[in-house]
Every structure is written in C-alpha cells, then in structure tokens.
Write a structure and sequence with these properties.
The chain has 48 helices and 22 strands. The strands form 7 sheets. Strands 18, 19, 20, 21 and 22 form a 5-stranded mixed beta sheet that branches. It has a 3-stranded antiparallel beta sheet with strand order 3-4-9.
Amino acid sequence: MSQSIITLIQIMLAQALQRLTMLINEIQLPKIIDGLAKFDGRKKRYVPYPSLLNDSNPARKRELQLLVNLQTQWELLLEIHPGNIRFVQSFNKYYGHYEQVLWPDSRTFLAIPNPVSFADELWLPESQMLGQFQRDFNNKLKPLSGEGFDKFQEIVQNKISQAYKTTKTLKQAWQTVSQFIDYQNKHYMLAEHHYPKIIAPQPIKFNPLITDKSWVKNGKVLVKIVRAVEHNWEQTADYSQDQIIGWLIFSGIVYGGINEVQMLQWWLTSLLAKEYQPFIKERIMVSPRFVQKRFGNEREEGSDKLYNTKQIVVDMVSQCWLMNYHKSSSPAETTHIIAKLSEDKIKQYLTMVLSDLIKPLNIDLLPFLRFLRYASYYWEGLDDADIDHASVGVLRGMHNTAGLSTQDFYRFLNQKYQHTNEPYDLEHILTLSISKNSTNQKEKTNISTKKIEVRKSDLIVNLTKDFKMDEKQTQQKTSKKPPTLIERVQKRYKQYDDLSEKILLDWVLSLLSRKGPPNNVTILKYLRAIGYEWLYFTTAQPLDIWSEEDFEELYEDILEYKAVVRNNTDIVYSANLLKSMHNFAKAKYNLPSVNFQHSKNGRRVRAELISPQAYQAIITQILGSVDILEREMFALLFILVYRTGMRKKELLGLKYNDIEGLKAATPSVVIRPNSYRPTKTQSSIRRVPLFALLKPNELSFFINFVQSNIGGNSSKFIFTLSSEQRPIDDHVPLKLLKRTLKDISVDDNVTDHTFHGFRHTAVSNLSLVLVGHSDLVEALTDYDESDVLRIKQGILGEHINAQDRWYALSGIMGHLSPERSFEYYNHFATLMATYTLSKADITLPERTLYNVTGFTNKKLKENNATVRNSSVSIPSIRTLLFKNIIEGKRKSPKFTVESCDKQLLLNTNTPAADELFGRYGLNRVQLLLQTYDKEMPLSKAAQLANISIHDAKVLIERASEIIDITTKRGKPRFVKLSDSNTPVLSPLNIQYQSDLRLLSLLLSNAYRLREKSETDWTWFIEICREKLSVSRAYLPFRTEDEKELQRFIGIAEKLLPLKRWLVSSNEDLLMKTMSSTDYRDIKQQSNDSKNALHIGIASQDHRERTNKWQYSPLLRFFVHMMLITDETLSIAN
C-alpha cells in the first residue's frame, strides 16, 4: 500500500475518532439546572438565564444562584475526585442512539480512491468503535468520590454560612442543597441515598453553664481580693462613712449576689433609707424600684422610661455593715448621700476602699463592670449556697425577670378576705356587658366553634400578587385603565369573612387611603412582617369579645414566636406594627385599649400573683354563690388554672376525651387542637399531669366531677353550662373573677386581678417547688412536703434534681423557651436566688465581727452564736442581727400566708378505701356493666373498666340480683329488657347534662349522709327501691303516708337543696300537705288527675317551650347504682 493511502487512512481514522469525541461531548446528561442556566466559557461557570432572573422574586433568585453555584462546584470536583462507575445507574439508552449515528449499516466504510483487496482490513468493526465510545462515556459518567463529596460538603457549609444570614434564608438555602443532592441520587446513583443528606448546622443554644477562660482568670483574681479584704477587716477597727458604704457595696456584690448595676444602686438606696422589711425565718428583705434598660414591670406615664421592682433578701455580711452605717450616720446625712448616688458614685465608693488595700499586694483591681460580672465565681462556691445556674444568670443580669411592686407584694403576703353570702345572677355574668360594632355581633358572640383550622392564610399571598400586579401594570401603558390597587384589595375584602382577615384588610386599605401614604413597597413590607403571624394566631377567634388581657397575651405570644421560632432580633419593629393595626381596629371595631409591652426602649411585663388566701377565698365564694348546677364547673375551672397555668382558651377547649389515666386515678390532660381551640405553636401541644399538680382533695374533686358528668359521650366539652353543649364564652371567667374579687374583699380596696394572672401564679409557684428553697415554698404557697415531692416526680420523673428543671417547667406551660417563663411569668426568680445565698454558711473572725458590728464575745454567747477557733458562723447570729436592724418593728414576723388554711374544703367526701362503696367511680362501674351486657367475658370486662376481678364479681352479682326487684305485675323496676327479651344489668341512662351536674353533688352528700346517719341512708334507699320503677322516676305517697313523706323530704334535703325537688298532685292535696313554709322552696306542679303526692328530682322539660318541670331519671339511676355498689344495703324485693 502506498504511503499516501496510509496517510489518508490515518487522517480519516483521526477524523472518525474526533467525531466520536464530539458526539460524546454532545451527550447531555441530566442536570438540575437544565432550562435554568447555561455554561459561560469565559467565566468557566454556569450562570442563570437573565430573563429568568428578571421574572423571579428574591427567594427564587437566591435559589437559582445557589443551584448554578452548586452545579459548577460539583463538576469541578468531579474532574479532581472521580468515583467508582459501579455505583452509577445503567445509561444504555445513550448507546442505542449513538450506535445509529455511527453505524447506520452496521459497518463504517472508508472511501479510498483505489480500493484494493486488503481494504477489508481497514474496516473498523462496530465492537471496537463502541468499546472506545463506552470507555470515554464512562469517564464522563463517573460519580463524585467519597473524598470529593466531603470537600463538596465543606465548601457548601462555608459558602452558605457566609452568604446567608437570616434564619429564613438559611432554611431556604439548605432546602435547595437537599434538593440538589436528592437530584444526583435519583438521576445517577443506584442507591437511593448514595450521597448522604448534608445536615444543616444547628444554631447553638445560649448556655449559662459555659465558663470561659476569662471567668476563671478574673474569678481567681477576685478571690485574692476577697481574702485581702477579709484580712483587712480583721485588722481595722475604725471606718469612715465613705468606707462603710464602700464595704456595704462590696458585701452586696460578693456575698449577696447583687451583680447588676441598676439593681445594686437601688438596693443600696433602699438599705440606707431603711426601706427594708422583715421576712420569713428572720430574713430582711428590700423591694427596690429602679430604672432598667429595655425591660421592666412599670412604664412611666407619658414616657418610655421603664421601671422594675424585685424582691431581694439581704445577705448577712451586708447586714453587718448596714448596722454599722445606721449606728454612725444621721438621717440628714443619709438623705444627702442618697441624693448623690449614681453608678459612677458607687464605682467611686468601691474603688476607694479597694485600691489602697490591694495595691501593695500587687493585685490588679478589676474594672467595676468586670468585678460585677465575675463576682459569681466567689459566691457560687459558698458553703450551703446550693444555687442553680439559671438563678446565677438572674443575679448576673443575664436573664430578665420582674418581681412584684412593693404594694402588690405586701398585699400578696397580708391581704385578708371574707365570704359573702349572696347568690349570683348567672345571666348577668354570662351577658357581655360592652357593646360591639363588629360584623360578628349579629351572630352568636362565640364564633370559635366554627370548623376552621388555623392556617397561614392565603390572603397574604393574594395581597402580594395584587401589589406586584399593580407595580407591573403601572410600568405598562395600556389603552384600558386597569383596576387600582385599592380596588384590588377591596375585591379581596369580599372573599374573606373572618374578623381577623377583615381587620388586616381594613388596615391595609387605611394605609393605602391615607394622605401621603407610605409607598407600596413599604406597605407590603409591613404586611409580610406581621401578616402571617396575625392570621396564624387569630383566625377563628372571637376577637370582638376579647378583653384587654386576651389581646396582651396574644401579642406576647406573637412576638415570642417571632423571636424564638423565626429568630427575629428586632421584634420592636413588629410590635409597633401590631400596635398600629390594633389602634386602627380599636377605632373601627371597638376593640379594647391595649398597653403594648414593647416599645423602642424595651418592653413592660405584667407582674401579678394570686395569693393562696385569695385563691381559697375565690373557690369558697364560687361554691357558695353560683347556681348549684354550675358551681362545681366554675370552681374546677379556677382550680385548674391556678394549679396548672393553662391558657384560658386551652381550658375552655378541654373535652372529656382529652383526659388520660382516669381509670388509674392518675389523670393528665392532653392539650391538642380541636374545633374550638387551635393550638398556637407546636410547643402548645403537651400533656399536663393533673395527678401531680392538683392537691389530693382537688384531684378527688376533679375525678368526681368528671365521673359524674362524662355520661356516655366523651367528646363533650368539660366547661359548659348544664344546658349547653358549647364551652362558656371567653369573657365569662374574667367577669366571674371580677365579681368574686369584689365580694371577698374586706374593704373598698378591691384587688385587681386578671384571669391571666393565674398563669403567672402557676409558673411562679412551680418555680418555687422545682427549684426554690423549702422555706419559700412553705411561706408563699399552700404546698406541703408531700405536694412538693409529688409535683417534682410528676414533672421531672425519677431524677428530681437534674439541670433540666427549667426546661421541664417551660414544657408544662407550653412555652417555646425557658427564657419566656423567666421574663414574663416567674416573679419569684430574684427572691429565690437571694434567699438561697442567705443560707450560705459564711464564717468571719470574731475580731472582724466586733470591728464591724460591735458585738462582743459576751454578746455572742448570750445569743447562742457558734464560735469555733475564734471564728463566728454568721448564720448563727441571724436572730441577733435581725433584732438590731429591724429595731422592734416586728419581733416575730408571721405573715398571713404562713398561717393560712392549707386545706381547701371541697365536696370530696369519699368512704373508706377498704369498702367497695365508692372505691370506683360510677362511670367505671357502668362501663363494667355495659361491656358485660355485650357478652364480654367478665375478666376482660373487669380489665377494661380497671376493676379487680374480685370486685367485678361482687358488682355483677349485685347487679344481677337487682333484676329480681319487680313491680306488683312482676316486671323489673330498675332495668329494661334487651332485644332478645332478657334483662340487662346496666342502669337506664341519664339524658341531660344538667342531671349529670347534680349527680356530682348528690354523690358527695350521699357519702356524708351514709357516714353520719346510716339508718336514714338505708331507709331512704329502701323506700326508693320499693316505689321507683322503669316507667316512673318519682315516689308516690298516699295521703295516709304523710309521716313517711315528711321523713323522705327531711332526708332528701340533705342530698340536694329543696329547690331541686319536684312535688306534683291535685291542688287540694298540695295545699293541705305542702303549704308549710318549710316546703316553700320545693317546686310544685298541680295535676288534678293525681290522688297521691309524687316526689322526685326536678328537671326542666326540654320538650316544652314553657318553663314546665318533669321528673329527672337521675334519682332512679342514683338509687340503682347505690344498690349495686353499697354492700350494706339489702337488695331483696
């Protein structure tokens, strides 16, 4: 073959291979950015199509840019770190396509001008070309290796953390990364999760337990200073006035934990001005009121200045210096000193006493603020000062908390209450007393039973579209005039009918219609800032009947949600927008005025606590004054809110099927969303352990009420009127509270409490129980030692002293974070922390004590001071210091709260536990009978009802015997026949909720009657057994049975008030028998066809429109169940 032919063949082979390479490069493997971006050869990276970017919103632009960056980085790493091809899916579909392109006739023929016989050798077989193609294609298809993916993950994490700063954009970015990884797995890899998901870095929680090198380093310097100071005190006998004040400040910081500048200044002011008061266990307490930046429990009227008040127990070393000061200073001097006190002056006092002392010792004096910050290094380690780190954070100013005002704390400790015997007009309490202009007024005021799920309304999305469409059409010139933005919003107004949506729409319209309105971009920014949360928290809520405290709680919850969940740092901006919208709605919809807690200078929190005496007086007043059918329901409402702190909406939305553990007498309630009560956040869905939080008598009261009222329908709401199915209206609890507070107040100075104040009280009380000292629990609550242990175990489990106590408390309360509990609800935090420090076992040399206080050795011995090795245990002179400082104001401080009745008297009378009678709730006995009637084996029926098999046998046997109680005609008196014409064991059901309400009281009084007069009890049940029947729920008495009737009425009055009984007969017999004033409360109904007196429990006849009465089946049901459960009663016919 000539050289020219060979050269030609080589050229053609090279061209064929070049064509093959080009074809391989033209293969378009799937990419997530297909149709979204192109490769820019100059920049050597992918770039989004400009047209797409121009038509995209900011979120979509960020997503597109991130996707092209990810694709670019991925392909760069693929070249450096190729992986193993065996992990990749089959791509044979590409081979078939390119085979037809390369070999249309199964061979490739090289055209040679002069073909010769050996030209066949120059044919390229298909297998050879395909093999070359596959090798090159596989190189392109190789996945990213494990090492390459690790580098990709590292690059992605670094770039995202630098480029995206807000929680929202970070969340979107990581969703895009997950989408990219999922795409690679789905389109390339055999294994579904070959490339693992890249876990987004989680934000680090603030942890007050963290101690850094600076804390240790500066703390050690501070300890040296303390040692030098204590030595100096022992050597120095005479002090100037300025030195005494300086050492008083030093003691407060180092021994008392007063490590916040403003609190320190006014703590000192209160001590110098003798504004201290005696407290429990011979403690001295001050309640300084001071200006605090950005947080407080009072806002000065007409300004944004915030004040806070805290209750502080004065440490004993500070008491020593305080005693010295008042011995050597006149009132005039004190007034002059207080007038000049400031942060700088306090700093001067402290620097003055320390600088000359530590300079010769070569100890560097810490700057004032650093001295305050690191003082906890010393006082945390004091003997017997067992203080938790969250409380350390409170004293260091790391957690905002508010105490009570001085007046409120005094009232909390000392207010006395009375009981007023005055029945309440329930209709007045149920009626909403304020007029409403809302669009919902024509309907029932409580609209929250509407079947509406709380959602992020699409209203915001639609309004955003309207704003963007307006902007787009403004830029376009069209012959037809488009609708204005106001017209578009007004059109939306017709689509949404919920009050919360109308308020938002009206507010937007008012902004657009304002003279010199904000531009549309600004209004849309307002809308996005608060619109979603407003609708999320308020949709389907009866805003038109909400009170001021309801709205305050709402706005607190919205702003907490934005701060904690949405991680918004500037919630004041949102607060101002909410304030603007509320003020608008106040004018248009007559909403109540609201004092907004947040402003540009900080937020005010409501500090409010209900004392144990007030709580007991409220329950007693309700049980005595509210109608008998509703009193237990209302009492239970206030018991639960005081003990559990549940929100009003959560309580009113409780159903019987929200209760767990009732059979085991360890009930909890599960807070979860329903048609009435949408939960506000995920943390709101929780389990509240009533068995732990309620006191034993309250728990019995709860169980009795539930078992008596649940009936056969567990999906009913608990807090309803006896004649209603829906919960009581939102305004009713507060209105009843206001009336009750007025009646229990001894004088005209009526305590002003809100219903939400019970939630504050529950958080504060449970904080004391879980973390506080037992002295404070005993003094400030009505819990005893057994209550404390039960609550701790119920909330914390086995490890009751673990560090998660604050998180457990916030979980029970449905708070998003413990900070919420501290800032808004725990008003004992500072008191708890300083009381704990007051227990510290500090020792000082005897000489030091003499130099500071003047107490001689003789004086110490006379007062039983503990002296060892010439050192005095400071706690042992507590009484001595107390007497000298208080100066006889109150020699033996005993507060009302210390001696208040710890046991609230409730109708929870139950028989002894060794009796079958009353051992099980009636609903459990009824469940046993019902399941046994369905031919379920006794063992299973007993297990289902949670009744022991022995007791179940007894109950079934007695129920079977009752079948034999028959009328003169031989028909069963108490049971009906089943479809198969056989008697059933179950009693006849009670139809109306009002009858179930009476059952609870009836049972309580029955237990009491049985205990006090078994003869009357037995006679009453026996005569009922003889006269009641399936067809009649009353007892007939003939004219000659007058004495029996009188005895029956006498006993019946002990079971239910006479106004709950009904007597009917002919008019003459009624006049003759029932005319006595003793019977005037009994309801009487004339019926001339009757010749005997019929008596039974009265029930309103719901079949009639008039107020006629009928006989309730309650009496028959009650007697039937008593015959089954009381083994002392005879069943014989």
